[in-house]
Amino acid sequence: MPFSWEKRLTPSKFMLLAVPCIALLLSLLFCGVFLLITGRDPVEIYVAMISGALGSTYGLSETIVKAIPLMLCGLGISVAFRMQLWNIGAEGQLYVGALAATWLPLTFPALPAWVMLPLMVCLGMAGGALWAFVPGILRARWQVNEIITTLMLNYIGILWVSYLVYGPWRDPKGLNFPLTAQFPDAAILPFWGTSRIHIGLLLALAIVAFLYVLFNNSRWGYELKVIGSSPKAARYAGMNITRNICLAMLLSGAICGLAGMTEVSGIIGRLQPGLSPGYGYTGIIIAWLGQLNPLAIVIMSFLFGALQVGGYMVQTLGVPAAVASMIQGSILFFVIGAEILTRYRISYTGCKGGRSDRE
Amino acid sequence: MATPFIQMQGIVKRFPGVIANDQVDLTIYPGEIHALLGENGSGKSTLMSVLDGLYQPNAGRIIIDGEEHKFGSPRDAIACGIGMIHQHFKLVEPFTVAENITMGAKNGDFWLSTEKIKQEIIGFGAKYGLHVNPNAYVWQLSVGEKQRVEILRILYQGSRLLIMDEPTAVLTPPETAELFSNLRRMTEQGCAVIFITHKLNEVMELADRVTVLRAGRVTGSMERSQLNPNQLVQLMVGRDLAGRSKPIQTELGPVVLNVDQIEVLNDMGRLGLRALSLSLREGEILGLAGVTGNGQRELAEAICGLRHIEKGSIHLHGEDITNLNPSAILDQGVSYVPEDRLGMGLVPDLTIIENLLLKNYQQPKYSGRWLLHAKAIEENAAALVEKYNVKTPSLHQPVKILSGGNLQRLLLAREIATIPRLMIVVYPARGLDIGATNDIHQLLLDLKANHTAILLISEDLDELVALSDRIGVLFDGRLAGEFPANEVDLDELGLLMAGSGQTNGGEPNAI
Amino acid sequence: MSDSTLVISILAAAITAGTPILYAALGELLTERAGILNLGVEGIMLIGAVSGFIIAVVTGNSWFGLAAAMFAGGAIALIHAVLTVTLRANQVVSGLALTLFGTGLSGYLGKSYIGIPVPSPFTIQPLGFLTDIPVLGPVLFRHDILVYASYGLVVFLWLFLYRTRPGLFLRALGENPAAADSLGSNVFALRYLYIVLGGMLCGVGGAYLSLAYAPSWLENMTAGRGWIAVALVIFALWNPWRALVGSYLFGGIDALGFHLQVSGVTVSPFFLNMLPYLFTILVLVFVMIRQHGRLTAPGALGLPYDREER
User: Fold this and answer.
1) Which of A97, A227, B174, C229 could crosslink A127 through cysteines, CB 3.0-4.6 Å?
2) How many domains does chain C fold into?
3) What value does the mean pLDDT of chain A take?
């Protein structure tokens, strides 16, 4: 090949910005080919998706509604990823957070809102934190691969929610549907006017601010950065890695658990299976796309919220909503593939047999 | 002499920000030992990686037996009879010797026939005097034995040119002597050898011809018999060697460090230190010689609390610090410059500012309970970079772009700034050029003058003799001997490093 | 049903339920031996399951379906190869992307095939006189042909890894690619090869679910089996025989849960369904504690290979 990769000394600033945009375009093209092969018109589908998600007040507000849990999951995941802890259990943490938060209004339905809601937030965060703590301590103590344990706990958490709503927590007046009783009004998050946008948005933005300071200006954030970059150096500098792994997982899980709480309390008003269409997994893409930067994660979660809403909208064209998750997965492909452009530059060597990737 | 075997003409190889080879020519004749001499960073290893097919040159030609060749990979070089032994051995540690060697075979069978290979290895070994046990696992072997396996493998794949990258750096003096005699035996059989080194005495002892590189260019290429060591230094450094500053005789203070009979496990879970004792006074430099892997890292890490001490105790200024956690020991004024500069001592992806913060981020000056004081941190970093002459385009650059000398200056700057009572330095000048080495040595001597106790662990005997007050030898996790620096007998030191001359059962005497 | 026939039928069911995991685990084992971590197994299995199913329905021939599953699995793994080998992307993230993409794509492709039966699924073909061996016969030799093929595959992979030259180079590739490279083996091409072969096996694992085990198509029908396979490779310490034992252990837990349900034990089915996942975690913890955190994992697993890295 007459081209070769030349390593850059420092990542290219331009490419850091350009890569996500290029990746988005390429993945639309790539999925377009798939759609074409399967006999659909990609342009029609994309137009329907965009206009569905952004072309109306309803679409826009729904996009924001979807962006809230996505943002929370992305933020939670970014805390763990910064320490090279591959927490892919956001989905399970979300479910367990929802479960823990649900327990309160089901058990004490008469509490006033100012007691109920803060306690539900705490319970939701505690549930998610617990679900992330188990893999955290296993990893810190015995180097048990957290990718697999967090993932397995996803299935267990979701099954546990199913068990409760099909069994002990099923609403006796619910005509045998697997649902808990409707929450009392005091357990519903305040929302704006007629839209479904709820106050969870403000909670999420508060966490953005918190993480921004944490990552950039705090002592603990500095420890996280060092441990994430080089555990050996962190140990050498006297940092307590075991404790920090556990703390990071706790915080990560707590934020994902909050996403579960805001979903049951802000959107659904009860616990039910299928509570999340994979927010926890999409959150991984968002965190990575946002380069683990809280501000970028905000932007990405709106983008992916729109993608999700667009996915629902095209169902009217007879296209499965899975098309959205297909596009999401492929965006991630192109982003990580294109990341090489930030670390290397392509140079033309001209001579045959010039180095590099011979394949 | 006969017709050239290999000619490299006008080789240019660029890395980001550096030209490692600039229009380099090199000619190799069959059956000769050709020394490639130069300081670290002069481009020797790069040039050889080009010849080995590992790197593709940006310009230039390689002519073998009168025919031009382009190497896309080491496979092409192997096909032309070129084999290279790198500084980091390319052996697969969990494999046996036989498995490693058979990987080099040109046309091996589909099925592995270990018995046949073992016979061949033994035969080859006898022919060249290279004896190894084919059934041993590579991770069980000593460094010298691993090198023998590498040579055997290259001969086994039918190479006519053996390139060795600083082969003696990891060997004890007796092992070096054995290697030299093996190499001579190989050239008698018609094999050519390229020998990369920066040690003049090795060139004078072994080489038939010499090519000297400086800053990526050839500064001379001639028969050894036409040369004397002073000319070689001129060619290599471009100036005469400045005399090293002699250690100032400082008044030795009270005992700072007292290590008493400690036992520590190594990474393989076996004893890495065996009942090792030593002590160190204020303003004293204790040098520890020894071949890598004899307990150096384990000792440094045990003192710093990074490795669990199974038996024995360590006292600092009379206080027991055995198995305290690392941060508590740091607070006691123990500073450590590890051999692994980039990765342990410094975090490659973090900026200079962030790296300089590593040891003092908890001090009230630089952080409160929760938040960092960005301004004080940056000012401190700027002051240190200035004071210790670290060359960098900006304080916000990740440290991985710095050169070896600047990395080490940065690391020492941070460690000295903690005003340590005890400083442990491991291989402080490894891989540095002469200028940077002198800087680092001066920093250590200044520190000594400030009454810091220094434990200097090194493989470089010249460095140890130049800096230390006392010199001990680490062998197999024990202190195998100890001398005042001005009474050191290098031959005896060499023997101790190789494990002979050890008084059996006798405890090393700690002072 | 007498106790002994119950045990035999549970054991036989364990093998059937373990077979898709076994194929996937062997695929992942091959990939990891080459030094590449592929966390996309779940996604590849789904792609294999759906493409095998569709082709089997369209052509009416499950063998074509199987071939399609292998092809699709290899093709999708090729993306991982391009990203991790050539573009040196983070292997963890690339694998996750593969799973997300595979889940989405399989859901999209399979939407209109839900609830359709397979025209000619792989069915049980007892192996003649071998089934007469007491206990072992009915347990081992009363299965479909893909199960028999998996026995052969384990033997073959074991021989390949430890008794042949290419196997030696494969192991070297995962332990120390620089060594393999300096000996003239083409690290990049070989890693591509083993990633694609691994993907093909994962595809077969998926197709086994949709063409023999179920046999039908359901969205997300792998239900985490791909991840269990990844965990199994660790449990197996990268050895095919141990992967076989591990797969049947998991299959056994699956089968046991099912049998308990049928026999009317009053445990919620949701708890029984949790068992394999719970067991995976426990097994991993057990392995890690016993190994004191030091695994015999391929030395270069998860690291991109850059020849000029300085």
Assistant:
1) A97
2) 1
3) 86
| A351 — pLDDT class (breaks 50, 70, 90) | very low
Q: What is the arithmetic mean of pLDDT over B14-37?
A: 86
Residue in C closest to B92 by C-alpha: C176
Q: Does B424 touch chain A (CB under 8 A)?
A: no
pLDDT score, position B253: 84
CB-CB contact of B452 with B423 (8 Å): yes
Asked whether the beta carbons of residue A233 and residue B345 sit closer than 8 angstroms, the reply is: yes
Residue A211 included in any domain: yes
Residue C9 lies inside a defined structural domain of this protein: yes
Judge whether C131 lies within some domain: no
How many H-runs (helices) and E-runs (strands) does chain A carry? 14, 2
Are C18 and C248 contacting, i.e. CB atoms less than 8 angstroms apart? yes
The model's pLDDT over C188-223, given as tens digits with 9 standing for 90+, comes to 999 999 999 999 999 999 999 999 998 889 988 988
Contacts of B325 in chain A (CB under 8 A): 238, 240
- For A207-239, the pLDDT digits (tens) are 999 999 999 889 999 999 999 989 889 999 989
Q: How many domains does chain A have?
A: 1
Nearest to B372 among A218, A239, A349 (CB): A218
Q: Could A336 and C227 be called an inter-chain contact, meaning their C-beta atoms sit closer than 8 Å? A: no
Contact C101, A27 (CB under 8 A): no
| Residue C64 in tokens | 């074509």
Kindly report, residue by residue over A65-101, the tens digit of the pLDDT.
Answer: 999 999 999 999 999 999 989 999 999 999 999 999 9
- Residue-range domains of chain B with CATH: 1-81+160-239 (3.40.50.300), 95-158 (no CATH), 256-333+419-506 (3.40.50.300)
Residue with tokens 């197999």: B476
- Position B249 scores a pLDDT of 65
For residue C185, the domain's CATH number is 1.10.3470
Binned at pLDDT 50, 70 and 90, residue A5 comes out as low
Chain C contact present for A162, CB below 8 A:
yes
Q: Which of B325, B327, B304 shows the shortest CA–CA distance to B316?
A: B304
Q: Tokens 């061949």 appear where?
A: B120
Tell me how close the Cα of B335 comes to any Cα of chain A, in angstroms: 10
pLDDT for A346: 67
Looking at chain A, which subunits does it touch, using at least 3 CB pairs closer than 8 Å as the criterion?
B, C
Q: Choose among B16, B348, B370: nearest Cβ to A230.
A: B348
What is the span of the domain harbouring residue A257?
Answer: 71-291
CB-CB contact of B28 with B6 (8 Å): yes
Q: Is the pLDDT of residue C151 over 90?
A: yes
Average pLDDT, chain B: 84
Residue to mutate among B50, B372, B402, with most A CBs inside 10 A, is B372
Is residue A197 in some structural domain?
yes
Q: Does C284 map to a domain?
A: yes
Look up residue C303 and give its two tokens: 């690291």
Confidence class for position B389, pLDDT limits 50, 70, 90: confident
Domain that holds residue C162: 3-123+136-309
Distance CA C133, CA C139 (A): 9
The predicted pLDDT at position B1 comes to: 52
Question: What would the two tokens of residue C202 be?
Answer: 């994962």
ipTM for the predicted complex: 0.85
Helices (H) then strands (E): counts for chain B: 16, 20
Flag if C182 and B95 touch (Cβ within 8 Å). Answer: no
The DSSP 8-state label assigned to residue B362 in this structure reads T
Q: Is residue C270 part of a domain?
A: yes
Q: Decide if A81 is inside a domain.
A: yes
Cβ–Cβ below 8 Å for C164 and B104 = no
Distances (CA, A) of B74 to B7, B20, C186, C187, C287: 17, 19, 9, 11, 39
- Residue C288 sits at the chain A interface (C-beta within 8 Å): yes
Quick count: other Cβ atoms within 10 Å of Cβ B489? 10
Residue B495's CB: how many other CB atoms inside 10 A?
Answer: 19
